[in-house]
Each structure stands twice: as C-alpha cells, then as structure tokens.
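ok so heres the complex, two chains, lmk if somethin looks off
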Amino acid sequence: MNGNDGTNDFLALVKSVTMLTADDKLSRNKIQSTRDEGEQESPEKSAQKEKALAKIKASKAFKKRKKDADEDSDFDDDEIARAIFNERHAPLPGQMENCEICDKRFTVTPYSVQGPNGGLLCAPCGRQIAKERQGEKPKKKAPRRQTAGIGSRRAAQSRLLDGSVGTLSLATLCVQTLAKNVELAESLGDLPEHLVDKIARIFSKRRLLGPDTLPLFLQPSTQTIRIYDGAKLGEQELISIFQIAPGLKHFKARCVVQFKDEVMDYVLSRDTKMESFYLHGANLLSEDKLHEFLRAQGSYLQNLQIYYTDKHVGDETIEFVREHCPNLKRLKIEHNQKLTDKGVKALANVTCLEHLGLQLEHSPSSPAIRKAVSGSGPNLKTLSLSIVPNADDSVLDAIHTTCRSLSKLRITESHLMTDDGFAALFTAWQNPPLTFIDLEKCRYVSAMQPRQNDGLVGLCSNGFKALMAHSGPRLRYLNVHACRNISREAFEEVFSGASSYPEMRRLKISFCEEVTDYVLSCIFRSCPNIKEVNVFGCMKVRDVRVPRGIILVGVPNAQGMITEGKH
Amino acid sequence: MASGEPSKYVTLVSGDGFEFVVLREATKVSPIISGMIDPRSGFAEARDARCVFQEIRQMMNNNFAVFFLTKPGSLFPSPVLDKVVEYFHYWYQYRDNDDVPDMDIPVEICLELLAAADYLGLDQATMNTRQWS
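and the predicted structre for the whole thing:
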C-alpha cells in the first residue's frame, strides 16, 4: 500500500507540472481532438463532427475525391470524408502545428506537405515524404469495365444491334471464351454442326479465321465447311480444304479473294461431288473456269450461289447452268455486273429451281422477270428480286397467277409497282401464307412533290392490309422499310388485336412515318412472340415502353429503348 | 413430394454422383430441364425434383456425348455441371438487367461446356428468355 501512495504523490506532482504548460497546449489539443478519431470527444462535439462529415459527403469535392480513389484503391466513404474534413480544418499558414510523423512542433507554411494520415508535416519530414512520393511511379488507371461508366451505353446499344439483350447464352459465352483462346485449341472434337457453324461465325466476326485456325474446321470426314471471312486465306489454304476433306458436300466461302483459277483447277482435278457451292467475292476466278466446273461437276449441284463476281458470271453462265445442272434447286446471283435481260429470260428454261435470288446491276425489265418466274413458277419456294426499279405490277400479277408454293418473297426498291398491284397479289392468292416478306423501299420517290403520291405508287395501306390478311398467320419476318405511305389507320387496323400474329419474330418498319407509340404498343400486343422491331426514322415514336425480351432498335432519342417489366 | 406444391429447389446430379441443389426458377432458362421438371409432365424427374445427367460427366471423359453410358464411381468430379449451375444462378441474378457483366468460363472445359450448353438448350435461339406464364 505504501508503495502505491508513493506513486500517487508522484502522479500529482506530474499533473501540476503539466498544468503549467496547459495553456500552451490548449489550442493544439483542441485541433488534435477534433482531428483524431476521438474516443474522448464530448457527445455534442462528435455530433457536430458527424454533421460536418455528412455535409462533406454530399459535397462536390467529396464526389470527385471518391471517383479518383475508386480507381486505385477502395477507401470507404467515411475515410474519404474524414480526410477532407481534416484538410479543411488544417491550421492556416503561420500557425503552429505538431508534425504528424516526428511530433516536433513547427510553423505551418503554405508549402507544408500533407502526411499520410491527412495531418501536416514539418519541413524535414515533408522533404522526405516528397522524395518518396516522387519515386513512386505514376499510378496506372485500371481498365474501364464494360458494364459501367462511360461507354457502357454504347456497348449496350452495340449488343442490341447484335440482337442480344441481358444475359448472354451459355453457348455464346463458351464460344467467346474459345475465340479468346484460339491458340490453345487443337481441335473442336465432335461438336454438332450447328455449334461448329456458330464458332465459325464468331471467328470470322473477330477476324480470327486464317491459315492457323482453318485446320480447326477441317477434318477428313468434314462434309460442310462455311467460311464467313476468308480474306486471310491464300490460294494454298483454299486448296488444302479440298485436299483434307475429299468428301466435301457443302462449300461456302465469303470474301475469298484468293479463290482463283488455280484453286478451281485443283477442284476439277479431284472427284468431289459438291451439292452446294457458295462463292462470295471471288472476282479473280475467270468465267471459263467456272463454266468448266459446271460442266464437270454441275450434275451434283443442288445449290449454286455466286456473289460479287464483277464481270465473270453472265448470260452464258445461265446457259451452262441449264445444260449441266439438272438437279439445281437454288440459284442465287447477286451483285452481278454482267447478267442482262437475256440471261434472266433464259432462267425460264431452268425449270427445276425452287429458290431463285437475283440482284443485278443491269436491272432486269418486267417482261424478263415475268418470263423467269413463269418457268419454274409453281415450284418456287423463294423468290428474291433485289433492287428492281423497273419491275412493275405485271410482275406481281405473274407471281399471283403462277406461284403456288412460295414461302419467301423479296421485291425491293421497285419504283413502279402500285398499291393496287400489291393488294391484287395478296387478295385471293392460291399460294399458302408466306413466312418471309421483304418489300423494302417499294415506295414513290419524287423530288418535285415528295409529299404527294396520288397514283398510290409503292406499298401503301391497302396493299399492307391485304398482305397481313393473307400471310399474317404464318409470317415470321416482315420488312416494309421505307414504305412510307402506309397510313397510321392501316397500322392500327392490322395490329388492332382483332387478329394476332403468333409467328411474327422480326418486323422492320423503319422510315414508316406514321408509326406512333400507340402503333408500337399494338404491335407488341398482337405479336406475342416478336423479338425485334426496327423503327429507324419513325419520328413519331417518342416514349414507348418495351416489354422485356423484345428489342426495339432505332428509337429516335439519345436514351434508346426503355425496357419494362420482368421475366 | 408427389402431391401439393412442388419444391422450390431442384437437385441436379452429375454422372459421377455430385449433387447440386438449384433454385427451380433459375433452371427455367433451360427448356430441357424445365420440361423435365414440369409437374404437369409426370416424369420421374418432376416427381422427385431430381435430374441425373449421366452424360455430362461422359463429355468430360472423351469429348463427346455417349448418352446413358456411364462408368459408376468415376474419379471425375463434374466441373461442367458445376459451371452450368453457376450459369443458372448468373442468369437468375441478372435476368431483369440490361447491363450484365459476362460470366467467366474456364478455358479448359470450354468445349465440354459448350456441348453441355447445347444439350440443355442454352443457346440464344432456344433459351427461355421471354416471359412465361
């Protein structure tokens, strides 16, 4: 007990001594106590501090600091707010302050450096800290995440245009991972064909298909190869396709510039029996070689599709097709600069065709198209006439009278066909309902009187109503892009809810001026399975709520579509 | 389990016997599983809320699916079904969001997972992405 008394006395002595310097220290303690995390603060003081902190949290400076801090580390809000609080309550230049590191007393100047905990430092400590900080490398900004921040909206819109919204499918995620790690893949194993095709598409989209990745798609047993972007493939790689897969049945290659005569020579030297031959952009291949191919192997061909060949497929080619391809079901010649009316007329003699697609620079005349359609008319399942400004109602009439099994019809950019012609086509037509109709840009164009269309040229209200009445129940895809004379009343009547269109998946009504929010909501209601609607240039669409799962592309505002509802 | 309200959870069993208990709602993204466990279907899977995927391990073994041919007591755990289940939850969590981070797929099982995804109908075209009744 005695010893304890002794220490008490000693403590009392120390207390009295410290009392003497209390005045001196008072101001400092005040600052310190507000600044420290402060367990010994009085309640009202801490309440005041809380208030101040809350105020800081709402301030602009706080938000800025937080944004900066988020990029390199994760301070929590309280820490940031406290740091700002401390800064604001830092002593002004001229006042005395204790150094945060060495606790020495010093005079604050405008150049005093801030310490790691927000307090000020004395000159020597400050210099050291400054030196250390200079040694640090400038911090790298973390790469921006795709899902948040600036650019996310653009990314989201880009995905919308790809037709995906919300979560990607597991298959897509896998294929994307695969595409990111192509160099690790040795073979695709025995994946089903549609998955291989999916992989091929993504590879081409990312420009990954080259000499090193082509073998992934090639096996001795391969029967089908689809190359969506063969720009990186050389002559040798193209030849290797036929070397490795002698049993190739379906060959599809887009953008294969190097598919030259030499490659065709190799194909001719082999005994391939191709059923489908699809060539896109092979404009170095000469016409003679193509004819040779048709002569040698045309009898097996069921599908022949040739795109972008400049001047190498002409009227004579049609003759070769007629002569040597007795089993041809599908013929598509598009972006062609050589074929003329003569060739189109000659198509009438290729009577086995079921699918016909033409897009010619020498736009075919009505009589030529009529003749071509009449040849294989009753069997035709697909008729695609792209960019036919010279085709008129007589073509529609020919389709009406001859076609009986059509399921896909495309007539685009006709400037002569009239509303009456379309209405007559779809009225009392003995053809079953179509699943695919594309009448893009069948409309009246006049620079003199753009608003008037007295002759009802193009697809207008009556034609549209007749179309939907005929094909509505089975229609999956409808494109009436820029058929701008379809009235609002016609849209409202068609989608009034009186009839529903259960099969409809994609609808393109861009540049149809009369489409309003109401029309769109009617469409959503009467097409229960619709996936995508295009409304570019429909300026009367303002504030439409899109049910979840539907993609509305081209809304004329910056925000894009607003989705509503839940799964 | 045969009568009354069906369980909120479904048990998925991999070919090598690993069991995963998943929210019933979350499996609805797969048309195959939702068809199997639909109470109206009357399948054994629907009665027990339990689906056995023997083939999903099989895919691990030899890279292609030999359906319903499985060695009992295999040493393989089922990382594939594990990922599939992770995807169900990922989908369920983000099903009402437009802005979704991509799920990570381990590169090693990428192809097997792709085959499994195809088997379960988890492709953009076949997925149940629309509202159901």
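quick notes: The first helix of chain A runs from residue 2 to 35. thats all i got rn
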